[in-house]
Amino acid sequence: ALTDPTVEVPHGHYADESMKATIVPNRNATLLMAAAGVAISAGCTHVLTAVHAGDHPVYPDCRPEFVDAANHAARLGTDDAVTLEAPFVDISKTDIARRAGELGLPIKLTWSCYEGGHLHCGRCGTCVERIEALHDAGVPDPTRYRAAA
């Protein structure tokens, strides 16, 4: 659904089957290795990815073993100059939202929607999970949505 415009992005809370429609094979490997190249060119030593525990069941490139392998590849490819880190790999989206609230982070500047556009759709699985995570964490949701979940 994210690479083929003829496939609709599933709405509602994600289950394994509907999440499968949003898989972009090896997306994180591609983006993280490109980020490692940009990082070394910019004199940076770390690349961070926001994969979280809720991604593990369906997205193979969000699992801890993938992150470890990608870190190994990034270090090899940059002669140990760049390290890949995934600080949320073992925690839930709700825990991430709770921590963001505690730190006073600007949640309104974050993006979750798989449909794109100027506003979050409010109906796709990532929007539904965003709404639930912020609610469950007790963090006000500043996000403007096109539709209610």
Provide an overview of this structure.
This protein is mainly alpha-helical and 149 residues long. The chain has helices at residues 16-20, 27-42, 64-77, 93-103, 125-137, and strands at 46-48, 83-85. A two-stranded parallel ribbon has the order 1-2. α2 (27-42) runs parallel beside α3. The mean pLDDT is 86.
Give the overall shape, derived from the CA principal axes. globular
Largest sheet: 2 strands, parallel
Main structural class: mainly alpha
End-to-end gap: 19 Å
H/E element string?
Answer: HHEHEHH
List how many beta strands DSSP finds. Answer: 2
Mean pLDDT: 86
Provide the β-strand percentage band: under 5%
Strand order, largest beta sheet: 1-2
* Poorly predicted parts: none
Give the fraction of residues assigned to helices. Answer: 25-40%
Tally of helical segments: 5
| Whole-angstrom Rg | 16 Å
Q: Which features would summarize this protein structure in a list?
A:
2 strands; two-stranded parallel ribbon; 149 residues; mainly alpha
What would you say about this model in short?
With 149 residues, the chain is mainly alpha-helical. The protein has helices at residues 16-20, 27-42, 64-77, 93-103, 125-137; strands at 46-48, 83-85.
Task: Give the helix/strand layout.
Elements: H1 16-20, H2 27-42, E1 46-48, H3 64-77, E2 83-85, H4 93-103, H5 125-137
Parallel strand pairs: 1-2
Helix pairs in contact: 2-3, 4-5
